[in-house]
Task: inverse folding
């Protein structure tokens, strides 16, 4: 059995007890087999002989996904996902070796927080997304819709009466339903329409507050969505093109799935990991990225906590503006 096959089996059924050991093994594998990552590690003077703890592992700046095809090993991608970006920016691109692998971690993560995604009817309020064939978010939701096909499963490229009719139909059956959408699209929906709400409806916002004339915090978003429906259930999804796994908000903080961990680094000293409850930039280990790079230094700013949860406060100054919202016009 090859080293990759052995690691893939360990990651496929990863649990908290084995995470650190497997992460260090993945780091060594990627150091020796990922040209871009190897060059970066050597540039900052770090190699496997000096790594004994997971927090010592170098995190690759996320901008490398904009400039390079980040791959561990030599293989042909099944698909390439690209970030939304802007007309003036260079999109990140994530080369995916296996969609089945990618889908496994999306389903594994979601199921660790909620029911199996096949138990829900899925309504995707993602304006402009269907014009793209390279969105990892659309691919994930489409996969969830296919687990148990229902006639009500549907993407909506714009607000319309059909969406409200579908929601009313699902309410009459008290069907488990997820309405997933870009933040500002959800705001427009709830402020312009009489949206039916029931106990088995869960609204999940995917971000998308950047690039607007007036940005709002997640707390303000929740408050506005709850203005006429104080009992509505709202959650948040944290994901990005460069990741295989996602995190979901559990009450007031995000929590990762079994293949993902989040750390905080010093903004002024990017090679230094800082402690809990301190504001810093977020570093992510996503073992689902076995074939690309599992160690990513993001441009997001937030805090981490001892119980494994984290919060996202904003973005680093002068970071490229990205996000789902940029597709909503």
Result:
């Amino acid at each position: 059995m090859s080293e990759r096959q052995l690691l893939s089996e360990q990651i496929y059924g990863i649990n908290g007890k084995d995470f650190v050991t497997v992460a260090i093994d993945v780091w060594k594998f990627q150091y020796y087999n990922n040209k871009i990552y190897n060059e970066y590690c050597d540039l900052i003077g770090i190699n496997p002989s000096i790594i004994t703890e997971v927090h010592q592992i170098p995190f690759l700046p996320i901008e490398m996904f904009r400039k390079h095809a980040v791959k561990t090993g030599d293989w042909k991608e099944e698909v390439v996902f690209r970030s939304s970006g802007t007309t003036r920016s260079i999109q990140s691109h994530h080369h995916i070796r296996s969609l089945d692998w990618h889908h496994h971690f999306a389903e594994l993560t979601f199921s660790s927080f909620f029911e199996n995604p096949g138990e829900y009817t899925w309504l995707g309020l993602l304006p402009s997304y269907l014009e793209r064939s390279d969105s990892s978010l659309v691919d994930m939701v489409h996969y969830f819709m296919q687990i148990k096909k229902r006639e009500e499963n549907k993407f909506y490229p714009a607000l319309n009466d059909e969406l409200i009719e579908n929601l009313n139909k699902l309410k009459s059956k008290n069907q488990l339903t997820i309405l997933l959408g870009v933040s500002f699209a959800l705001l427009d929906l709830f402020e312009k329409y009489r949206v039916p709400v029931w106990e088995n409806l869960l609204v999940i916002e995917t971000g998308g507050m950047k690039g607007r004339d007036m940005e709002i915090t997640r707390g303000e978003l929740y408050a506005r969505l709850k203005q006429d429906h104080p009992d509505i259930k709202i959650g948040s999804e944290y994901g990005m093109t460069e990741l295989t796994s996602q995190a979901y908000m559990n009450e007031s903080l995000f929590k990762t799935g079994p293949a993902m961990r989040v750390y905080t680094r010093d903004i002024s000293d990017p090679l230094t990991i800082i402690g809990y409850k301190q504001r810093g930039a977020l570093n992510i280990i996503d073992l689902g990225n076995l074939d690309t790079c599992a160690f990513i230094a993001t441009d997001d700013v937030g805090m981490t906590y001892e119980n494994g949860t984290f919060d996202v406060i904003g973005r680093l100054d002068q970071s490229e503006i990205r996000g789902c919202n940029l597709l909503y016009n």
